[in-house]
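Exercise 7.
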Amino acid sequence: MSSDVIIIGAGVIGLSIAHTLIREGLSVILLDSGEPGRAASWASAGVLAPQGAQPQASPYLDLSLKSRDLYVGFAQQLMEDSGVDIEYRADGGLHIAVDDEEAEALEARYQHQQKLGLPVERLEPEDVLSLEPALSPEVRIGLMFTGLHQVENRRLVQALTVAVGLQGGTFVTGAPVTALIIGKNKVSGVETPRGMFRAGIVINAAGAWAGQIGGSTVPSPPVKPVKGQMLALNVGTTTPIHRVTHGIGQYLVPRRD
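Solution. The predicted structure, written as tokens, is:
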């Protein structure tokens, strides 16, 4: 089977690339070892936080901020193409500290981001509790990041999968790439348990597994999986928090469902 483009990995990145390329008139095959978007993309928090923990002035930060800003139009386009609402929200996010050590770290972060000219507001404990009354009264300091946005990542996967399928993209599951096909110093295809696939362009969008594609002389990217845990809780009809809220080492993400 052949196409203009082969994308290795059908997570959010691979799906987003496919969505854009198909709209530009290219034929696309997406290869994945499992179902589209059911690995890291399905287990993520859906938080769009370009300011990160300790961002540095860099092209990467500029790219992250630009990417976040594009999400408004991206969400609208996906709604038109798939009929699925990805629940894009621009409610901002809180970072809180509940002891002296955490407060010191958060204060340093505030000063650092101020120097970078990033939007951040320092909040007193009463201001934090006014925004989120369910938080601990032991809060010492809070930072409000108005530039922190979020989406419902599972609905994002659903929207992209539907849109790519409706636009003519080809999904091949159960097809981990075992080797790259190389000729004349150019990658021209891939080998999988489902057969050989050829294309003029091959994109490695395998995410945490991007470095595990072997069988070629092409250097593998220095990427490896890092374990994380997400816990989904049904809180009934109440809404204990109203925006993404970070502590030191953990965070809470509200969902409509």
